[in-house]
Amino acid sequence: DEGCAALSKAMLSTRGGGSGPSAPALAGGTLHTLYLAGNCIGEEGTHALASVIRGGCGLRRLHLTGNGIGPDGVKALTEAIAEDEIRRGSLDAPENDSDGDAIFTDDMGGTPSRASPLLSQRSGMQELFLGGTGMGQSGCISVSRMLEHSISLRVLSLANCSIRDEEMAVLSASIKQSGSRLPLEALQLSFNEITSVGLESLARALWNSTTL
Q: Exposed e or buried b for every residue in 121-138, given b needs 16+ CB within 10 A?
């Protein structure tokens, strides 16, 4: 967690082109992919990463597979991703409404915002790997809420997360609600506890998806 916090601090300090040996690699939010799978990152480290994402670091691919971040860590991370999407939508939105813009309702205390799909898809979180993180039922609900706001996410891995039919129903409902606005192309659900009931709810949700 201390190493993750230090990395997060470096990413924040170099966003605007800071100084020091790490600046060229991280300046201007140019670090788009972060592989941290199979480490000892816990809730504290995840909160540090969430702060970076919330600050608009430009991270597009995040691999946290096999880290015990737990439900609270997943909640902090997914809320940060959703808030970043909403913020980007607010910044990218034209003054006048136009066809093709996506509307988000911020259920985390904000106001509805309108997003430009092209701009947000180019700069938001596109790949998120959370397999084997011990997220539990509440963590799965947090991921579902994030999906309702995302117009950037293309790959989501939730392998080995003890997902059951109940959690699958929640995920499916979010995918169905998002419809064509969510550009999800790959959903990894290996090594979970999903039966034919959960699979059926997912299949029904995919009728509204144009990418998965």
A: bebbbbbbbbbbbbbbee
Would you call 190 exposed, middle or buried from its count of C-beta atoms within 10 A (0-12, 13-18, 19+)?
exposed
The answer to whether 123 and 87 are in contact (CB under 8 A) is no
Query: Token pair of 19, please?
Result: 């100084």
Which residues sit opposite 62 in a β-bridge? Answer: 34, 128
Residue 208 has a pLDDT of: 67
pTM (two decimals) = 0.79
Q: Which of 185, 126, 108, 194 is nearest to 159 (CA)?
A: 194
Task: Report how far Cα 170 is from the mean position of its chain's Cα atoms.
Answer: 16
What confidence tens digit (pLDDT) does each residue in 131-176 have?
A: 999 999 999 999 999 999 998 999 999 999 999 999 999 999 999 9
Task: Tell me which DSSP letter residue 86 carries.
Answer: H
Q: What does the alpha-carbon distance between residue 138 and residue 166 come to, in Å, rounded to a whole number? A: 11
- Whether 152 and 85 have beta carbons less than 8 Å apart is answered as yes
